[in-house]
Write a structure and sequence with these properties.
about 400 residues; alpha+beta; two-stranded antiparallel ribbon; about 25% helix; disordered N terminus
Length: about 400
Amino acid sequence: MSSMKLWIASFLLALPGTASTASAEPPKPVPDIDIAVHALMAKTGAKGIAVAVIDGGRVSYVQAYGVRDAQGDPLQTDTVMYGASLTKTVFAYHVLQLVDQGKIALDTPLGDYLDKPLTDYDTNAIYPGKYGPYHDLAGDPRWKRITARNVLTHSTGFANFWFIEPDQKLRIHFDPGAHFSYSGEGMSLLQFVIENGRKDRGLGLDLGMLTQATFDRLGMTRTSLKWRADFRPNLADGFNDKGEVVAHDERSKVRVAGSMDTTIADLSKFVTALVRHDGLSAAAYAEMLKPSLHIATAHQFPNFGPELPASQQRKDLYAGLGVVTFTGPQGPGFFKGGHDEQTANTMVCLVKTRKCVLILSNDVRAEAGFADLVRFILGDTGVPYDWEYGDRAGKS
């Protein structure tokens, strides 16, 4: 048996059995969590925050606190909020479904799925602002080696986005697969291949429709990867680090790097499905959580940061597929964050117990209290918030 098969087999033995459906009984309020959330809001000044807890693969708690806009309208469990980079985990889940279906392979070069070389696609002309300008890579043959695994482990060698390069030219900064460096641009490349790939390979798919099928199946009625007009009546605007209101961005195109609108009630259903590997084979779920690429930097940002000396590296910190994996006092876990100037989100899950905390906030200042709140709910997990947030970790 190969080492990969041995790893997957040992991983699956550690998984609790999966049931077909979650309890229909509504989650009950937990006064202690209410007190902790109010304390976080008072300390950070955050205007709104929503929290869900999954325990044993079932939703046990969903609550929203504070306000959703400048008018003081209440933030509710069905208020539409910005999912930010939690979109990337949703995308990884759907890529793994395509792996299960044999439509894409994690370690096959993405160029193999296209009708012509990637560099022949003038994507600025076809999709203005939607995908990177791949013709910029014409002088660098390393693009031919980029795989779906490189994308989902943030090891393509791309910057976070092509337009933040000093000359706004897409380039590869290191050999694909060599290092972790966070890249939404890589996600856009994989989206491009799935949507424009060879139909005889089962690609040429609409990711908006693909993800919507999952949302419909899970009863996520107020979630989409692009804007819907019916979100407007109960929508969260954001609050930046000065407490200023920022209007919710109506994202009209599917961007798997971060266009998802959702609610705390909806996204808790997805996280529950994820930890039960509902919709994924056991092997695909094991691939997602396998420690695929060691992360040796002190912090997630800036891109291309120097690696720490070996003695200072966190030995358990790895990129999985669409998540970051770690091993703490309660065993293996995984997490993913989402952030912009007025949004702060986090998801933390423990593998053995299938316990998770999901936090969505429409106020970036809430982020400073996430580590304490997650610790309060889950106990000491070892989630690497010092790496995720750098000098923002634990500060208000």
